[in-house]
Design brief:
The complex is a heterotrimer. By secondary structure, chain A is α/β, with parallel strands linked by helices. Chain A has one domain: Rossmann fold. Chain A is built from five helices and five strands; from the N terminus they run αβαββαβαβα. In chain A, strand 1, helix 2 and strand 2 form a beta-alpha-beta unit. In chain A, helix 1 runs antiparallel to helix 5 and helix 2 packs across helix 5. The longest helix of chain A has 24 residues. The model of chain A has no long low-confidence stretch (mean pLDDT about 85). Chain B is about 70% helix and about 0% strand. The N and C termini of chain B lie far apart (about 50 Å). By secondary structure, chain C is mostly helical. In chain C, about 70% of the residues lie in helices and about 0% in strands. In chain C, helix 1 runs antiparallel to helix 2, helix 7 runs antiparallel to helix 9 and helix 17 runs antiparallel to helix 18. The chains are: A alpha/beta, B mainly alpha, C mainly alpha. Chains in contact: A-B, A-C, B-C. At the B-C interface, helix 1, strand 1, helix 4, helix 5 and helix 6 of B face helix 16, helix 17, helix 18, helix 23 and strand 3 of C.
């Protein structure tokens, strides 16, 4: 009865959980800047949440160091369905300048299905907002797929 | 039969579930919009809390391994239902439904039940973060309880001074007294108490400078750390409804005199007043202040706010 | 009332003492016979007392029973008497129900202890003595019963003498308890030297017109003596030491029944014998026939109550032991009772009696759940336990009912009586215009929220959070232990939902009886005796409430809203959409169901224990460190506090009365 309403709301209120998997903090700062008055992602309903249990979009930054690998996998498992994974910056995609290091276990694709990937070191805030908006659309579609499955 | 229908109308539509939820969601949305505007942002749409709630309903509910299933799922429902019953007991200016069957002390305790259901839910989730959160929630509760009690006693004495018992706890009697003698807020000795009550409101709701229990950056949403899906959504909705109920309670306690005589119009007046109170007590501090520390909240409420309420109580007691 | 019913009170007492005697004779070899004897004794006294409810509480009669038929001769009541009015029967009801529940619980709870014949002998004696105390019609028999009560309670406290601190706790209780008993005895001696009688009814007739400093000093001694039996400030540390080590069933008796004896003594003393608590109808006559300054007595009793209730609730914040914490709360709740009793209004007394009754119910329940936890895990340490709700769901539910009751959450009984307490205190303030009573009201409300905080701490530390691997094999306790707890839990709900019926059937008759000194005198000494001493006859007062609370109505509203939410949730649910998912096994295989801990692997991490509310305690650290030093745990100090209490009470009474 309310399923249509829920479907519509899905894309309007994506909550973000941010995992730093060994990032240099550049992408993390840019992600925060997305929520500042200049870019104001909150007008699209985005909100940073503190726990993976309430997250819809998991944003991963950093090259997945061996220290963070297990923690990342656990955290991703704790996000309820439907969920979308966004890789932020070049590091989770390719390892970037850290590629080949003994302590890097990337890329992110090895551990989870990545729905949206933003390149750049660091990506521009505009690109991040666009990626998040795309992720929100994917979220709504995943929800529909789950219902039709 | 008509009686039963009326009861159902009261419980489900006005001033019960539907009215509370609609106004609560609008107030919460308005608060977010106002904060955004004060920070020079566009802000989310007005119905954003409603979208948030619906989105939560579409998500999976995970019950953690350490959680006690039944309490984990029952706590949000119980808290929400207890809160709605408070709405039935608070008179909306001239139109009151069940306000003669429960008094201010009962309302104080029903609001406590809402807080406790959140605490029990958090405890039942078995998360260490929730443990820290419930500890903070309880400290916040102890903090605002003293000024709240002092305000209740001051208002009760003011309205009851002319009755044979000398005091009253009945919210209906307080509203009636104001209808006869003008609003509490316009009696100068009650102004400190009104100020204290305005301070109590954000802490009772857990709004930003006082949201120590749900500090998302420090303790991962605290009490809500393990909640996902519809129960989490219901807790968020309870939060929104609480905003409206605290505003309505303030209106009944301090602005009861202004009544148009028409129930529908009165409800509208209360909604408008709620918007003003929301702006003053929640949006502005949210935009201006950083989050308090736990012990600072306690100190602030037991000294400054309780002091304000005590001034009023003493003034009222001296017959001023 | 049938004639044979006059024998019921004395039979109810005797059957318990007889049970003690027979149990010790036959029970040494055969446990079944021993348990049967004790059970029969308990049930018999329960039935006998219950059968008196109709004539005494509902019809308002009074039973006066002269042992060996030694009736008063020439207006001098020398014989031993039992006088059962509604007040006595109200307390007797509390006693027999608590004894029954505690006894049944003991059969299952004490299964791992030996030399149980001693336990049951002492238990029956304790039960008989408290019943004898509340039904007694003369002061000296009250003293005798107090002595039996104290010594059996001391012996039972030390029953598990292998426990650390058991002998120490019992020793403290013995020494300081004796101080209280001595104080009662001195008071009685003083009264006897002046009045030449110890019959309560005759004293009640003669004392108000007898203007002598000796009887006033006797009042101070008796008040402190009875206060020590209720563990009022500064006797409260004893209770903590005794409760922490006593078996849970005995903790129930000490907190639910023994403290009530002190409360009963104070009510009898202040309302019936000295009639010095302000009763509205007596205001006009007070200057004529009341030698005691009623206002001072009000301030004194209320003040002691407020101090007790506040200090004990803050002391509970520091406790590491489940039962020690409960002990402090127990005294804090008795503080509530004493506070409102001191107000001297009909509403205040009703509220006090109601809370006394509720306290026995919910605190009994809490002590029994603590006993269940101890029985199942062998530990009472708040810093060590945790997560037991998964292993003991029934006990957890019972604990939550008890905790909600004592914290005064609607719709349980604690709220109903606390609500009356706030009304009574605030009305008193409104009537007299005295700010002192506003402070009393605020203190009562704040104590209530602190109580709540304390029980949230226990719930989180014992039942919620994560299970200590040490207690992984814990099992739920047996049904025999849970049934007595369920009886109390159901009483919690029923008395909370129907406070008006409780008021009508139990509280109103008991309150009238306490205030009706003339009726009490006439029942024992013959019609017209009170009038000859110009004791004013009693006019029943109606109680006005300055608020409203309709629990059934609220519950109906709550249920209908809950139903509405559930129906909407059911209508909105969709089979294919994501639903509730949970793990079936306890194996930590799937990280999805682990607690979120910033991605770390699941380890045992329990947030709880004694220091849960540091944000509150930090601001009060000076107060807490002072209290910590003050509660030294040295028996010499506690005796000194007791002696100081007697001295202060004496000085105050001599100055102000």
């Amino acid at each position: 009865m309310f399923q249509k309403m829920i479907d519509k709301s899905m894309a309007k209120s994506p909550w973000i959980f941010h995992v730093n998997a060994g990032s240099c903090n550049g992408c993390d700062i840019e992600l925060v800047s997305v929520l500042t008055p200049r870019y104001d992602a909150e007008r699209l309903g985005f909100r940073l949440t503190g726990t993976p249990r309430q997250a819809d979009i998991v944003v991963v930054s950093g090259p997945i160091t061996s220290q963070t690998r297990d923690r990342l996998v656990r955290t991703l498992a704790q996000v309820p369905e439907p969920k979308v994974v966004v890789s932020l910056g070049s590091c989770p995609r390719s390892g970037n300048v850290f590629k080949g290091s003994y302590c890097v276990d990337g890329p992110l694709e090895k551990y989870t299905h990545v729905d949206v990937s933003v390149g750049g070191c660091t990506p521009k805030p505009e690109a991040i907002v666009a990626a998040l908006a795309k992720a929100a659309e994917i979220l709504a579609e995943k929800r529909k797929e789950m219902r039709q499955a | 039969m008509t009686n039963l229908l009326w009861t159902m109308f009261h419980v489900l539509v006005f001033p019960g579930v539907l009215f509370c939820v609609v106004i609560g969601v609008l107030l919460a949305g308005l608060d977010r919009k106002l904060v955004a505007r004060m920070q020079n942002r566009v802000g989310p749409p007005l119905l954003q809390p409603w979208y948030d709630f619906l989105k939560c309903c579409g998500k999976e509910t995970i019950i953690p391994r350490h959680a006690r299933r039944s309490l984990f799922l029952a706590a949000p429902v119980l808290g929400f239902a207890a809160l709605i019953t408070v709405a039935l007991f608070v008179p909306v200016l001239s139109c009151s439904t069940y306000s003669t069957s429960a008094d201010l002390v009962v309302i104080l305790y029903l609001l406590t039940v809402v807080g406790v259901s959140m605490i029990v839910g958090a405890a039942a989730s078995g998360s260490p973060f929730a443990g820290v959160g419930l500890s903070r929630e309880m400290v916040a509760m102890i903090s605002y309880e003293l000024p709240f009690v002092l305000v209740i006693l001051a208002v009760g004495r003011m309205a009851g001074a002319t009755t044979p018992l000398g005091v009253t706890f009945s919210l209906q009697a307080i509203v009636d007294w104001q209808a006869a003698n003008g609003s509490m807020l316009f009696h100068w000795s009650m102004i400190p108490a009104a100020l204290a009550m305005l301070f109590v409101i954000p802490c009772e709701i857990g709004m930003h400078p006082f949201d120590i229990a749900e500090a998302e950056t420090e303790i991962c949403e605290g009490t809500l750390a393990e909640y996902s899906g519809p129960p989490a959504g219901l807790f968020r909705l309870t939060h929104c409804v609480k905003m409206y109920i605290m505003c309505a309670l303030f209106c009944a306690m301090f602005l009861g005199g202004i009544s148009t005589g028409y129930a529908a119009l009165d409800a509208l007046v209360v909604v408008v007043l709620s918007v003003v109170i929301t702006f003053v007590t929640m949006s502005v501090p949210h935009a201006v202040c950083a989050r308090f520390k736990v012990e600072q909240v306690f100190k602030f409420y037991w000294t400054v706010v309780a002091g304000l309420a005590l001034i009023s109580l003493i003034l009222v007691w001296l017959g001023l | 009332m049938y004639d044979f019913m006059y024998h019921f009170p004395v039979l109810a007492i005797m059957v318990l003492f007889l049970g003690a005697f027979i149990a010790s004779l036959v029970g040494r070899r055969n446990a079944v016979i021993r348990n049967a004897v004790v059970l029969i004794a308990m049930v018999t006294s329960l039935v006998l007392i219950l059968s008196l409810v109709k004539p005494i509480l509902l019809e308002g009669q009074t039973i006066t029973y002269w042992l060996s038929n030694w009736e008063p001769v020439g207006d001098w009541a020398i014989g031993i008497s039992l006088e059962v009015d509604a007040l006595s029967l109200f307390f007797a009801l509390i006693v027999v129900v608590a004894v029954f529940v505690s006894g049944v619980y003991s059969f299952f709870y004490m299964d791992r202890d030996d030399s149980l014949v001693n336990y049951y002998t002492l238990f029956s004696m304790l039960s008989g003595s408290v019943l004898g105390l509340v039904l007694s019609g003369d002061l000296f028999n009250m003293f005798v019963m107090i002595e039996i009560m104290t010594f059996t309670a001391v012996a039972l406290t030390a029953f598990r003498n292998t426990y650390e601190g058991a002998l120490e706790g019992a020793f403290k209780y013995l020494v300081v308890g004796s101080l209280g008993s001595t104080s009662v005895l001195i008071g009685i001696a003083l009264i006897y030297s002046q009045m030449h009688t110890l019959n309560l009814a005759q004293l009640a007739a003669m004392l108000p017109g007898y203007d002598s400093p000796v009887t006033i000093i006797a009042f101070a001694f008796l008040f402190v003596g009875f206060g020590s039996k209720a563990f009022l400030f500064p006797f409260h540390p004893l209770a903590a030491d005794a409760h922490a080590v006593a078996p849970a069933s005995i903790s129930l008796m000490i907190s639910g029944v023994l403290t009530k004896c002190g409360v009963y003594g104070i009510i009898r003393l202040a309302y019936t014998v000295y009639q010095n608590v302000d009763v509205n109808v007596m205001n006009a006559l007070k200057s004529v026939c009341n030698p005691m300054n009623a206002n001072f007595v009000q301030y004194f009793i209320t003040g002691v109550g407020v101090v007790t209730m506040f200090i004990c609730v803050t002391m509970a914040f520091n406790q590491h032991n489940f039962k020690r914490l409960l002990a402090f709360h127990s005294i804090s709740q008795v503080g509530y009772v004493i506070t409102v009793i001191g107000l001297g209004s009909a509403l205040g007394l009703s509220a006090g009696l109601f809370h006394a009754m509720n306290h026995t119910i919910f605190k009994g329940l809490l002590f029994l759940t603590a006993g269940a936890v101890q029985h199942a895990t062998g530990s009472l340490d708040l810093d060590e336990l945790g997560g037991l709700s998964k292993k003991m769901p029934g006990t957890c539910a019972l604990f939550l009912i008890g905790a909600a009751s004592i914290s005064g959450l609607p719709p349980f009984n604690g709220f109903a009586s606390k609500w009356m307490i706030y009304q009574a205190a605030f009305q008193k303030a409104g009537e007299t215009g005295n700010f002192f009573f506003v402070v009393v009201c605020v203190a009562a409300l704040i104590t209530s929220v602190l109580t709540l905080a304390s029980f949230i701490k226990v719930a989180q530390s014992v039942f919620f959070g994560q299970l200590n691997p040490k207690f992984a094999k814990t099992r739920e306790v047996s049904l025999g232990m849970r049934i007595p707890m369920w009886i109390l839990a159901i009483l919690c709900v029923v008395t909370g939902l129907f406070p008006d019926k409780v008021q009508q059937w139990l509280l109103a008759p008991a309150t009238s009886a306490a205030m009706n000194a003339a009726g009490y005198i006439d029942a024992a000494m013959g019609q017209g005796y009170a009038a000859s001493f110009s004791i004013p006859s009693f006019q029943p007062q109606s109680i006005f409430l300055s608020g409203a609370w309709q629990p059934v109505m609220w519950l109906l509203l709550l249920v209908s809203v809950t139903l509405a939410v559930c129906i909407v949730a059911l209508l909105g649910s969709d089979d294919k959409a994501p639903a509730i998912s949970e793990t079936n096994t306890d194996t930590p295989a799937d990280p999805k169901y682990e607690s979120f801990f910033s991605g770390e692997a699941s380890v045992y991490s329990q947030v709880g224990g004694s220091d849960l509310f540091w944000g509150f305690k930090h601001n009060w650290r000076h107060y807490f460190s002072f209290m910590h030093n003050w509660h030294s745990g040295v028996v010499n100090d506690y005796t000194l506090y007791g002696a100081a209490a007697i001295a202060v009470a004496l000085v105050l009474c001599v100055i102000f009365l």
